[in-house]
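Field guide to reading this record: the first block holds the primary sequence, the second block holds the structure written as discrete tokens, and the final block holds curator observations. Each block starts with its own label. This record concerns HNH endonuclease, catalogued under organism Nonomuraea composti.

BLOCK 1 — SEQUENCE
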Amino acid sequence: MAWLRERSARGEPVVRRDELLAFQFEGRPLPLVDSRLGIRKPKMLDAALSILTTYTRDGAPAPYDDAVGDDGLLRYKFQGNPRHYTNVSLQVAADRGVPLLWFFGVGEGLYLPFFPVWIVAVEPERSQVAVALEDAQRHLRVDGVTSEIERRYSLRIAKQRLHQPVFRQRVIHAYESCCAMCRLRHTALLDAAHIVPDREARGVPAVSNGVSLCKIHHAAYDENILGVRPDGIIEVRSDILQEIDGPMLKHGLQAMHQHKLALPRRRSDHPDPLLLEERYEKFRALV
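BLOCK 2 — STRUCTURE
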């Protein structure tokens, strides 16, 4: 965990699979993920060390249905037979209350790490375990009688701590760490902007509902200072085009008018034209 914190402090939280497999502890090889399985249980340990969620493209079926339960806690599926040694190691982790690492796929061979996480309940009848993303969640009840305020709290934690960071990394990776409007390539200054906001039913955390934007253009998009047509052409609001101000207004905003978004290489990662149209109509209503 100290190694992951140090690595993340350098501005790149995403780790490659080969880095995880080549990790060493005190001079000895100690892969942080299994070469074949989703649960890593080293021979010298009784409890699991890490769990992994495989990257799947938007719309593709996931090999395991890891999801949020009715109580707001995340669920991680067993790997085959519940008595398999890796699944047993999750039970040991739950019994001892030890922390684990969770590596979440955001691209081919790329993972966003979450740590520490804890196994707070084992649900063998559903072939899954309940996972807490932060210490406060470890004290919530998972027996089906969670209060509404606790459930909403856990849902918010899952959204803020897991879904939003994963969405950001997947979008920025698809756009090759580049602002789709101004081409800025400083990852620390990039956001994953929702086309349809995630508070709305159609605002799904899919790459096709996102655009990689620098913080200035993300804010301008959210404030309807500029909009994007379904064909990817950027429009700046007419009153903004008539303003006279400093170089940021002239070169950062006004110069974007009638330019086209720089799109990802994979067509499946392109913005959904229907979602762009829905958002563009709201922009046009304010022009």
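BLOCK 3 — OBSERVATIONS
The mean pLDDT is 91.
The chain has two domains: 2-144, 175-286.
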